[in-house]
Amino acid sequence: MLKAKNRLGLVFFPAYDWAISPTHPEREERLLYTQDQLREEGIFDIEGIVELKPDIATDIDVMRSHFCFPDVKSVTTESHMISAGGAIRAARAVLDGEVDKAFALVRPPGHHSMKSVHGNRGFCNINNESIMIEYIRENYGKRRIAIVDTDCHHGDGTQDIYWHDPDVLFISIHQDGRTLYPGSGHLRELGGPNARGKTVNIPLPPNTSEEGFIYTIDNMVLPILDHFKPEIIINSAGQDNHYTDPITNMNFTAHGYALLNEKLNPHIAVLEGGYSIQGALPYVNLGIVLAMAGLDYSHVKEPDYDQNYSPQEDDITEYIIKLKEPVLNNYFNPKPDIEKAPEGQYTIRHKNIYYDTDGIQESQKEQILTCKDCRGVLLIESTASINPPCVGIEIPVDGCKRCQDEGYRLYEKAVKSNEYISVQLTDRVKKEYKRVKAPGY
Amino acid sequence: MLLGIDVGGTHTDAVLIGDRGIESTFKAKTDTQNLLHTVTTALKEVTSGIDVKKITNINLSTTLSTNAIIENKLEKTALFISSGPGIDPENFKIGSNTYIIDGSINHRGSEVLKLDSSSLDKSIKNCSKEKIKVFAAVTKFSTRNSIQESAIAESLKGHADFITEGHNLSSQLSFPRRAATAYYNSAVWRIYSNFLASIMKALKGMGIDAPVNILKADGGTMPAEVSKNLPVESILSGPAASIMGIIALSKITEDSVILDIGGTTTDIAVFASGAPLMERDGISLGGIPTLVRSLQNRSIGIGGDSVITVVNGEVRTGPERRGANAAEGGEYPALVDALNVAGIILHQNKDKSVEAIKNLAEKNGMAPSAIADAAIAYSVKKITDETNKLLSEINQKPVYTIHEMIYGKKIVPKKIYIIGGPAAALAKVMKGDTDIIVPENYSVANAIGAALARTTFETELFSDTGKEKMVIPNLGIEEKVSRRYSLSEAEHDVIAYTRKYLENSGYNDKNLNIDIVESSSFRMIDDYYASGNDIRVKCQIRPGVIMNFHK
User: Fold this and answer.
1) What ipTM does this complex have?
2) How far apart are CA A199 and CA A193, in angstroms?
3) What is the rounded CA–CA span in Å between residue B157 and residue B152?
4) How crowded is residue A74: how many other Cβ atoms within 10 Å of its Cβ?
5) Which CATH class is domain B2-70+191-235?
6) Cβ–Cβ of B87/A2 closer than 8 Å?
7) Does A337 reside within a domain?
8) Which of the residues A16, A32, A40, A290 would you substitute to probe the B interface, choosing the one with the greatest number of B C-beta atoms within 10 Å?
9) Which residues of chain B are in CATH 3.30.420.40 domains?
10) Interchain CB contact of B407 with A (< 8 Å)
11) Model pLDDT for residues B136-173, shown as the tens digit of each residue
């Protein structure tokens, strides 16, 4: 009988009754064949592997990470709350010591969901990983966390949520934004004024293969993780770098994903994208499950591997080797933000965000206070094509007394002004989450 | 009249039931070395003075296959497995004659790699040399496409007395369970068939020609003729017999807990809205998971004969049994002795109980009454804790749809039913918020359950309409269907084929309800274009009893 070396919790929630639309890649049977493969392999009978039922996330769980406009209910459905709850269940299992590691195979995904949410972009409404991380921080007192996003698309939502957070290291490995949605994740994006270098983007060229991914992990990701010394490592385990994926252009494999996971050695993995639901997902998920459980995955191989997988071309190898230096520099010697405001003042950023799935256009003014005692209070004023102006104010986890007072001052001022249809206050110090809405919203 | 015999590990019970209820019962120790003798004795005793021509049906629950597997009295069996990508098939070897043959079927049932026929031939030659006559053939995803299992079986013809093909056992996925189940099915086939033949001969000798059915762990029966090809389905039917007995004896309509307290163990089962719950995947035997369907049942080492020990000042009961309890002449004090001492029951020789508990008390500097009370309390706590654990597992069972997540029902037991030897005694001490019920005739509930159990059956249909294919693996059906084949056609077909199969296979139980229990159709998309539907329909004949004793 097989026995897992690492006790592994699997939160498997395929949401067989939910789809974005009937022919959308994010549809009912996305995890059906994965479940078939895992069942046929007898994964759930392996000693040390347990299947866990998801929690259902609460509005407060969501408000810890997001400013939802006009409120949480209007931007989420039950499916999103269960998917995020699945990630929370995975985290609970690990932090309560039920298991050594956990993998949340949940859908819908979340890594394109940004701090401010008006609807669905990139198949995502709310960010499963950040909701999970903030749950961990609030309930288990952990602070230093690293996220390694191995989805083929840039994890722009997660990047946005942790842009100003020096305690969360966000590393995204993805197909170069010049060639794929969402178009971001360039080397120059390296974190906000108070968290420079804590966002690390590794844009890889199309057709990167096993060799290139493993080189990236060994020579860029692992040295940075070694230095950052996170208490917890999370893998945003998107599976669309696979050579059979219909909406991307990479050349990665199930065996490669398993090896990558083994090298990263994450405490928790959360499924993100991956839409080759017959040719890739069953094998990639199996590989990741075996790798996380510390079991042999050398026999995990796609049926068409010998016909359709080709090793990496030399020019791609050269390109990736050249990426190493700027990537490491971005983390170890980040260039300071020249726009950073002096102490006691706000650094301002204007953003326009397009929600491709829901066709919403959002316009944001984001302000972060430069504070010598904490990472500063955050203020986002947001208008969207479907919502009049809204505002969110956040007092960060490590918020100092002055920033706490400032947060409440901004909140009261915003409420009194009657300029906004929804005002959200997230006070991470006192763990208070407030919202005032205009009548009719 | 209906005859039920339950051959258990320690006791064998038989009961004869007529229109007016129980006509006669018989109870004796099981002779594990000679089960045939045990069965024929029970047959003779329970029918003594009765016109055997009036017997219309015989149901038999036997531990023969279970014992053969647990005691490893298995025939030398060769297991042929082929497996595609995934976990190394080396992990699924059973016994010393497993042959791994290259070949691969994917999760859609497409043949990806042909079976390596030269390695198959070589392996078969090796088996001939080893004088192996029984075989099991199991390939990955054979429930989606059985072509490679059938090819192995075809090659083995002429060498084999018996071959089990994995897909004939169950439609369920799980390659390791299928391999283990097929292996055991073949490994017990000869001993089981011989046993069954002897019983048939004995019945004929007694002038009984009623149909014989064999009890299964899922609380139902299969005809003796069918069981010859599926002997593994007869394992662990004992607890199911007791559960079916309770159903006949008590009208259970709510969420309930069933405790069957025996000599060595207590079996715990849970009913949801009056119906027994099934094990999700299949029962495990000696720690090995199988595809044998079973009622959900949890066994713990607390029973009437569980020995009382004192460890570091703490009084414990079980999990071992060291012979009979002191009241019955055993050497060590057991739970029954504690109940005797506490005055809850008066069982056999109470003085012996008092003496045994007193000895234990003196050794540990405690009062005998304190030991007795603590041993009883310990037993009750163990049973309660294990019951709560089982309930929590059931309520935390993963689900796969949003609907079930939001509207899924939570089981909250309203009643506890207790059967078995020490049932009445323990009912007195198991106080709590939940009603406790001890049904009448509880001591032969198992034989009653055996006598009254009806046919159960389960099968599943798969269709990939893009491939214009429909299969019902365990019925051996593979048909071409149109690209427009619908879910309702599939539901109709799976029931029709099941009825036809039952009629042709000697099932004598009529008017059975076949229920659709799972039904889904997923639209498959290749590159944004519909490529057909993935249809899956599961039907069941749920366990039931032919008559009830309750009002």
Assistant:
1) 0.93
2) 11
3) 9
4) 16
5) alpha beta
6) yes
7) no
8) A40
9) 2-70+191-235, 253-439
10) no
11) 999 999 999 999 999 999 999 999 999 999 999 999 99
